[in-house]
């Protein structure tokens, strides 16, 4: 059986240039909010899952993708597991994990939706300060579901 931790994520080249490279410190980004590309990807995926923004990937696809194992080996085990949990929740069944490629594709599409939401916010307000804006987006987020 294929292992979900070995499948590589994907993202569009446009997303890499306009969001990941801007917010990721290792890539020389101007804001330096995230140390690794995968952290920016998790942020976008979380936005996509919370806001139910699913968008198929367009081409060209960026090179140097990573997988869940990459995340785990760079102190991102909880993030990797959270992506899997969000994927199962959106799919509506744990059965999506029987085909890891489908699960990774679902995560990719929600991340892509989140990336496009981020790019739209950046376009609407070009004066956004990276770290402060990311912090504000995370901490002022409305809950996705009311829990009674």
Task: Explain what you see.
- The N and C termini lie far apart (39 Å).
- The protein is built from six helices and no strands.
- The relative contact order is 0.21.
- With 148 residues, it is mostly helical.
This entry's quaternary arrangement is: single chain
Radius of gyration: 15 Å
Runs in which pLDDT lies below 50 for 5 or more consecutive residues are none
The total beta strand count reads 0
| End-to-end distance | 39 Å
Helicity level, as a percent range?
40-55%
User: How does the overall form come out from the CA principal axes?
Assistant: globular
The biggest beta sheet reads:
none
Proportion of strand residues: under 5%
Helical element count?
Answer: 6
Helices and strands: which structural class? Answer: mainly alpha
Compressed to H and E, one letter per element, the order equals HHHHHH
Features:
single chain, 148 residues, mainly alpha, 6 helices, globular
List the helices and strands and how they pair.
Blueprint: H1 13-23, H2 37-51, H3 68-72, H4 77-91, H5 100-124, H6 130-139
Provide a quick synopsis of the model.
With 148 residues, the protein is mostly helical. The chain contains six helices and no strands.
């Amino acid at each position: 059986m294929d292992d979900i931790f070995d499948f590589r994520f994907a993202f569009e080249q446009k997303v890499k240039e306009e969001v990941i490279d801007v917010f990721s410190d290792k890539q020389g980004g101007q804001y330096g909010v995230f140390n690794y590309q995968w952290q920016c990807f998790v942020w976008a995926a979380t936005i996509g899952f919370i806001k139910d923004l699913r968008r198929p990937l367009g081409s060209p696809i960026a090179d140097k993708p990573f997988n869940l194992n990459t995340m785990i080996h760079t102190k991102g085990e909880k993030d990797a597991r959270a992506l899997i949990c969000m994927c199962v929740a959106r799919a509506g069944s744990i059965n999506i994990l029987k085909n890891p490629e489908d699960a990774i594709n679902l995560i990719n599409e929600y991340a892509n939706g989140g990336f496009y939401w981020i790019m739209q916010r950046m376009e609407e307000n070009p004066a956004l300060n990276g770290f402060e804006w990311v912090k504000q987006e995370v901490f002022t987020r409305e809950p996705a579901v009311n829990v009674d």
